[in-house]
Amino acid sequence: MFEENFARRTDDASYQFLFHVHGTAGVGKTSLLRQWEATARRHGAVTALLGDEVHGVLEAMEAVSAQLLRQGFPLKGFDKLLATYHLRRHEAETAVPEQGREPGPGGAAGPSIAGELVARAGMAGLGLVPGLGPIAGAVDPRQVAEGADRLRLALGARLRSREDVQLVLSPLQVLTPVFLADLAAVAGRAPWVVLFFDTYERTAPVLDEWLRDVLISERYGPVPVSVQVVLCGQGRLAPRWWADSLELIAPVGLDLFSQEEARALLAARGVTREPVVDLVLRLSGRLPVLVDLLAQARPAHPDAVEDPSDTAVERFLKWEPDPRRRATALDCALPLYLDEDVFAVAVGDRAVPPERTAEEYGWLRGLSFVTDRAGRCRYHDVVRAAMLRVRRAQSPARWRTDQLRLAGALRQWREVREGGRPGARELWKDPVWREHRLGEMYHLLCADPVAALAGALDTLVHACDPGGTAAHRAALTAERAGQDAGDPALAALGRTLREAADGEDGGRVRMLTLLLAARELAGPSRVLAHVLRGREHRNSGQDARALADYDRALDLDPGALRAYYGRGTTHLMAGRYERALVDLTHFVEREPAAAHGWVERGRCLHHLGRDEEAVADLDRALLATPEDPWALCFRGQAHLSLGRTGPAMADFDAAVARSPDDGSIRAWRGAALHALGRYEEALAHLDRWLEGRPRSVWGLAQRAGTLASLGRFEDALADLGAALELRPDAPWLLVRRGHLLRRTRRHPEALADFDAALALEPANAWARAGRGETLRCLGRTDRALAELDRAHALDPADPWVLAWRGRLHRRTGDLARALADLDGALALAPGSAWDVYERALVLRLTGRDADAELSRAADLFAREAASLGVHGGRSRGNLLVVLCALGAWRRAAEETTVLLAAGRPAWQIEEVLADLADLRAAADPDPRRTGELTARLSAALG
User: Fold this and answer.
1) Closest to 672 measured CA to CA, from 696, 713, 636
2) Which pLDDT score, from 0 to 100, does residue 729 have?
3) What is the pLDDT, as a whole number, of residue 315?
C-alpha cells in the first residue's frame, strides 16, 4: 500500500497523504516504519522519523527541521524564528510580566510609561490633543491610548512588538505557518516529503490537536499534497481529534503472525527443523518481535522444550550460551537508555575490562531487541518490561543496589555538567543536565519509591520553573518509574501530573496545585511551588491569586526573595507602584547582584515619576549587564522624561548597536524619534521594521501615527485599514482610526468607528471620548457632553477627557465647570500648553486676568516649535493663536509670516483658522486685527 502510493498522481482519488499504523507492542510497527522510510528514500523522498524523544509540538518541529537539514534541506525561516522565540522567551522570563490594564471606574491604575511612550507618540500624530507637543506627550504620566500596552498582556515589558508578544504567548500560532511554508519550499525541491511519527501512543496527547489542525483543517495554511504523514502507535486514534476525518486516513493494522508468516520468517533465518519451529511458535506466541528474536541465533536443537521454568526473559536469551552476557543483558535493562558510560555502570560487579567495553557494548547493540540511534540505544519495551520484572523479583536487594549505583553515577555526571554554573532554572534548559537529573530521580524512585518520593517531588517542582517541556518530561519520568518499580500509587501520581502538564491552558498551574496537595512536599519545595504558581497566575492576569501564592510563600519563608520579586512585579503590572517599590527594594537590598531587580525597580521608579532615581537603578543594572539592550531602552525612556534628549538617544542608539537585528528595539527607537519630532527618521525605522514584519498590527498602527504627524493622512488611514484587516476585533485600532477620521473632518466615518469599538468594548473610555468630541464637532452638544461624562466616569484620571469636556463647557457657557475640568486636567498634565491656553480663555470670560496664563502657554508652544525645527509647524500655528489672544500683534504677524513662508500644508493652516474662529467667538481682544491675520491665512489657501 505505502509503496504503491508513490506511483499515484496526487490528484488521484486513491492517493493517500495520511497513514496510521497500529497494533499491540511487539508486532513490528517500528520495523515496518523503518522499512517504509527506506522505501520513501528510494523514491526520492526527504524524510524525518520522530519517536517519543519529543515532548511537545515545538520539539517535533525542531526535530523535523534538524533531520531535514542533515539531508540538505534546511528550514531556514523556521530555524531563524525559532531562535528568536527562544531569545524572546528568555527575555520575557527574566523581565516583569507587565500587563496592560484597562482604565476603569474609581481611577484604576493605567498602563505603563513604557507603553505610554509608544502610544503617546502615535496618538499625538493622530491629533488627539489639540496643541499637545510631542515632548510634553512623552513625559506626561498618563497613557493616551490602550493600544501599545494591550499588545503585552501577560508578558514582560521587554517585548515591545506585537509579533514578539504573540510569538511568546502563542508560539504554535506564529511558528507553525513558517514551518509549513519552509516545508512547502522543500516539497518544491524534492518529489516527496514523508514525516514518520513512531510510538505515537506516547506523543499523541501533545501532538494530536496540532497534527489535526495542520493536516485536516489547514488552520495554519495549506500543506503540499506531496507531503505524507505516517502515524504509528499501539492504539486507535483519539476520536476527539480524528473521528470526523477517518475517511482521509489509511489504516494499517498489524497483528500476530499467522502460522504461515511466522514459518516464513523462520525459514528465511534458516530455522526449519520442525521441533525447533514448534518451540519458537509456542514460546513467542507468534508475536513478531519475539519470533525474530528467538530465530536470530538460528537454533538447531529444541533444548529443554518442555522445561516448565521457561520465563519470558529466558525466551529472549534462550540461545545466548554465555552466562556472563545473559546477566549483562539483564543488567542493562535497568537504564532508560544506554551508551558506553551507562553500560559500564550498569554491569556493576560484572565489570568488563576497559579494553573490552567497546566490544561488549557493540555486542549488546547488536541484539535484535535493542534499537540503536546515533550511538545510543534502548531496549524494546516488551523485552525491557519483562526483564525488569525478573530483575525486581529475583533479588529485591540487588535491584535496589543496582538502581542506587546508576542514580549515583548520574548524580556525579550532573554535578560535573553543572560546573559551578549558578541557577537551577538555567540548568533545566541544558538537555544533557536535565537528562542526568531526571535519570537520577528515576533510579532513586525505582530503588525505593517511598524514601525517594520527597526528593522526586522537589525535582518535579523545579521542573516547572523553566517552562517548555521540562515539567512534562519530569512527570513522565515519575510515571515510568512507578510502572517499572511495580508501584501503582507512584505510577498513578506520575500519570496524573503528566496529564495536568499536558493541558492546553494552565498546565503548570494544575501540576503545581497537585504537587502542593502532596503531604510529602518539603518546606523549601513548597515555598518554590507557591512562587512558581504565583508567577503563572500573574502571567495570566490573575493578580489576586498570584498575590495569595506569594503571600503564602512568604508566610512559610519570610526570606524567600523570589516571592518578594514576584509580588513586587505583580504590584507593578497592576499599577500599584508604591507597594511594588517596597517589595522590589527589599529584593535588591538582599540580592544586589541581580541585575534584573535593579531594572524592574528602575522601571517602577520611572512609573512614579522619580526618573533620576530610575536612571541610577538602571545605571547599576547596566554595570552588571552592559550588553542588555532593553535596560538601555528603559534608561533612554527615563532620560527622555527628564528632557535629556541627547542621553536618551544615545541609549536608544546603543541598544540598536547591541541588537541590530532586533526589530522591536528599532521600533522603540523610532517611537522615541517620533516623540522628539524627528518624523522622517522615525518613519525610516518603522519602514525598515515593517519590511520584515509586513503583517505587524502594532507596526502599522505606529507608522500611521508618524505618517499623520507628517500630514500624510491618506497613507496613515491606509495603514490603519491594513491593520484592521488583520485585527478587525481590535477596539484600540478602531479608536485610532476614528480619531484620525475626526481630525480630517470625516465625522460620520469617525462615529462609525467609535460605535464599532464600543460594540466590542463598551467600557472603552477613549472610544467614548472620541465619540463625544466628534458629536461636538457636529454640533450635537448635549449628546457630546453625555459621552464625555461617561468617558470621565470610566477613567477619572485621564487629563484629555477632562480637557475636552472643559472646552465643551466653555463653549456652552458653563464656565465654572469648564474651569474645574481644566484645573483637573492641568493637575494631571501640567505641561499641556493647549490646556493652559483653554484655561486662560475661561479666566478672561469670567472677567479675570488671563495674561499670565497666556504668556505661559506662549512660552510652552515656542519651546515646542524650537525643539521640533522643521516639524514645528503645528506648534507655531498654536503659538500664533495664543499670541492673538494675548494681543501681541507684532509677534503674531511675524509668526504668520514664518508659517506661510515655510509652505505649511493646507491642513495645518485650516486648523489655525478654525482655532482663530473659536477665539473670535469666545474672547477676541481685537477682532479687526484677528480678521486681518485670518484673511492672510485664508488667501494662502487660495
Assistant:
1) 636
2) 87
3) 57
- Our CA angle for 635, 640, 643, nearest 5°, is 135
Pair type for strands 376-379 and 370-373: antiparallel
CB distance 754 to 767 below 8 Å: yes
- What is the residue whose three cell numbers read 560487579? 349
Q: How many residues are given for the chain? A: 942
Tell me, rounded to whole angstroms, the distance of Cα 84 from its chain centroid.
11
CA separation for the pair 521, 512 (Å, rounded): 11
**Is this prediction's pTM over 0.90?**
no
Q: Rounded CA gap, 835 and 845, in Å?
A: 15
Work out the angle at residue 435's Cα, subtended by the Cα atoms of residues 431 and 437, and round it to the nearest 5 degrees. 115
CB atoms under 10 Å from CB of 86, counted, come to 13
- Divide the 942 residues of the chain into consecutive groups of 10 and give the mean pLDDT of each group: 81 84 72 86 91 85 93 92 81 46 31 35 39 30 31 42 66 89 92 91 85 86 89 83 82 73 80 76 66 64 39 60 84 92 84 74 81 77 83 90 95 89 76 93 96 95 86 92 93 91 74 93 93 90 92 96 95 88 96 93 89 95 90 89 85 86 72 78 82 79 87 92 91 92 92 94 90 91 93 87 92 93 89 90 92 92 75 80 92 88 78 89 84 90 75
Q: What are phi and psi of 339, to 5 degrees?
A: -140, -175
pLDDT of residue 326: 84
Q: What are phi and psi of 641, to 5 degrees?
A: -65, -30
Output DSSP code: residue 848.
-
CA separation for the pair 516, 734 (Å, rounded) = 45
Residue 144's alpha-carbon distances to 98, 124, 293, in angstroms, are 17, 9, 73
Helices 629-641 and 663-675, packing angle to 10 deg: 10
Cα dihedral 932, 933, 936, 941, rounded to 10, equals -130
Measured CA to CA, the distance from residue 478 to residue 440 in angstroms comes to 11
CA distance 634 to 638: 6
How many Å apart are CA 310 and CA 325, to the nearest integer?
18
Half-sphere exposure of residue 382: CA atoms within 13 angstroms, side-chain side = 21
Cβ atoms of 795 and 817 closer than 8 Å: no
3-state per-residue secondary structure call for 880-907: HHHHHHHCCHHHHHHHHHHHHHCCCCHH
Query: Quick one: pLDDT at residue 641?
Result: 80
pLDDT of residue 150: 31
SS3 194: strand
* pLDDT score at 884: 92
At position 868, the amino acid (one-letter code) is L
SS3 at position 232: strand
Number of CB atoms found within 10 A of residue 749's CB: 17
Reduce the DSSP state of residue 440 to 3 states and report it.
Answer: helix
The number of beta carbons lying within 10 Å of the beta carbon of residue 693 is 18
Q: What values do phi and psi take at 658, rounded to 5?
A: -75, -25
Please, how many CA atoms are within 13 Å of residue 549, restricted to the half-sphere of its CB? Answer: 26
What stretch of H or E contains 751?
helix 747-760
CA-to-CA distance for 614 and 581, rounded, in angstroms? 11
Grid coordinates given for 537 = 497566575
- Other CB atoms within a 10 A radius of the CB of residue 415 amount to 12
Cβ neighbours of residue 769 closer than 8 Å, sequence gap 6 or more: 787, 788, 791, 798, 800, 801, 804
Q: In what order do the strands lie in the sheet with 192-197?
A: 45-50, 192-197, 227-233, 18-22, 250-253
At residue 582, the pLDDT reads 96
Using DSSP bridges, classify how beta strands 250-253 and 370-373 pair: parallel, antiparallel or unpaired: unpaired
The conformation of residue 798, written as its DSSP 8-state character, comes to -
* 255, 23 contact by CB (below 8 A): yes
DSSP, res 505:
S
Cα–Cα distance between 868 and 859 in angstroms, integer?
A: 14
DSSP per residue, 233-300:
ESSPPPHHHHGGGGGG-EEEE--PPPHHHHHHHHHHTT---HHHHHHHHHHHTT-HHHHHHHHTT---
